[in-house]
Amino acid sequence: METQKQKKSFGQWIKTSVTIRMLMVGILILVLLIPLSYIKNLIQERSIRQEQTVVNDINQKWGNEVLFYGPVLKIPYQTHKIKKIWDEKTKSYLEEDIITLHNAYFFPNLLDIKANVSTDTLKRGIYKSPVYTSDMKINGSFTTPSFEIKDVAEEDILWDKSTIIVNSTNLKGIKSNLQLQLGPENYILQSKYSKDSYTNTLETKFLQEKSWPKDKTVDFSLDLIINGSNQLKFIPVGKETNVAITSDWESPKFDGNYLPDPKTKSITEKGFKANWKVLQVNREFEQEFFGELPYINSSAFGVQFIVPVDDYQKSERTAKYGYLVIALTFLVFFLIQTISKINIHPFQYLMIGLALTMFYTLLISISEHSSFLYAYLIAGTSVVLLISIYSRAILKSLKFMALISASLTALYAFIFVIIQLEDYALLVGSIGLFIILGTIMMVSRKIDWGQ
């Protein structure tokens, strides 16, 4: 008889023990991490699909990233090598002049680029990608090139075979006839095979004598309209390079080897403006090259047109707070259960946790067909209503149902504010969590932890 009483008292202690309930809630939270991890993987998978398939396909058809390199003056020249050949007839050595043709490349003395960039967003189904059209005005000048370093005689410089070349990564996106004005003459830039797999070469026909910078400085100008995506960059080939970019894109990322002048940089909701000035002494390469053009793409600078936080990034950031949402919701139910002496079965905790995880699948699926705001409102409202109605059934109290509903609404609203922020997300999140912790500490003072 006494043993039965002991068993009954032990079983009653198991049901009423605060410590046991805390352990069960903790175990359930750990179990719910499994579906949460699957949901995060789903979001990442959908994001990768957008990037690798749809966005890349849109960009390839519209125009990929743009890297502009040039214009560059290309002048062929000859070198001589005397070779002695033994002649059996004369029984003496004969000298033969072996002529080899080389190319010299000279960068402009001044390069001035003004780019007006208008942006748009292309969509395919549920996916979208930001693209742009850049209207560029390119001006500058070439000074008389020097061949002293190679000790080339004047008569070996083939001025009549000189050309102008321009390199770009995106010929497909060019939407204007490329007509370069050099001095008093105009020249059409045409595609030419390039060994560089990253950039494509455009080259003029042989320059006329009036355009040679042989004895004087020669000015040039080029208008270029080009479609692109992701980024717009330039290589500072001028002895002095000035680049000015204006755009209606409100979230640029300035990238590359050089940053814009902070005094001229301006970013507003209507777009941005930025100016760069790069001198020869700021670069890691010289003004002329003999033989082949070097790979200097690492010196490029410009701007990336990015979406700071797209819908997939927002969903992924929201899912990272899933552990917090489940833990705090369970904690609210645990405090209500402990203070009011209402019994909540572990199965009921599990159902509440699964309802909370459904929020993220609803969010990602709805946001692919609507805006993130509407998706968040629909998913959040659905989950709050479901858990509120369920809590009314298990807690038997309108007061507790209202408390659960208000707590979940405040929590989801708090997380929505955090994921919208960029620079202040950590600060606001830390303050919010501090307030939540303080509230829980005050409420938990009424619990008898000796049970």
TrEMBL record:
<feature type="transmembrane region" description="Helical">
    <location>
        <begin position="321"/>
        <end position="340"/>
    </location>
</feature>
<keyword id="KW-0812">Transmembrane</keyword>
<dbReference type="InterPro" id="IPR010364">
    <property type="entry name" value="Uncharacterised_IM_CreD"/>
</dbReference>
<feature type="transmembrane region" description="Helical">
    <location>
        <begin position="372"/>
        <end position="393"/>
    </location>
</feature>
<feature type="transmembrane region" description="Helical">
    <location>
        <begin position="400"/>
        <end position="419"/>
    </location>
</feature>
<protein>
    <submittedName>
        <fullName>Cell envelope integrity protein CreD</fullName>
    </submittedName>
</protein>
<keyword id="KW-1133">Transmembrane helix</keyword>
<feature type="transmembrane region" description="Helical">
    <location>
        <begin position="425"/>
        <end position="443"/>
    </location>
</feature>
<feature type="transmembrane region" description="Helical">
    <location>
        <begin position="20"/>
        <end position="39"/>
    </location>
</feature>
<feature type="transmembrane region" description="Helical">
    <location>
        <begin position="347"/>
        <end position="366"/>
    </location>
</feature>
<keyword id="KW-0472">Membrane</keyword>
<dbReference type="Pfam" id="PF06123">
    <property type="entry name" value="CreD"/>
</dbReference>
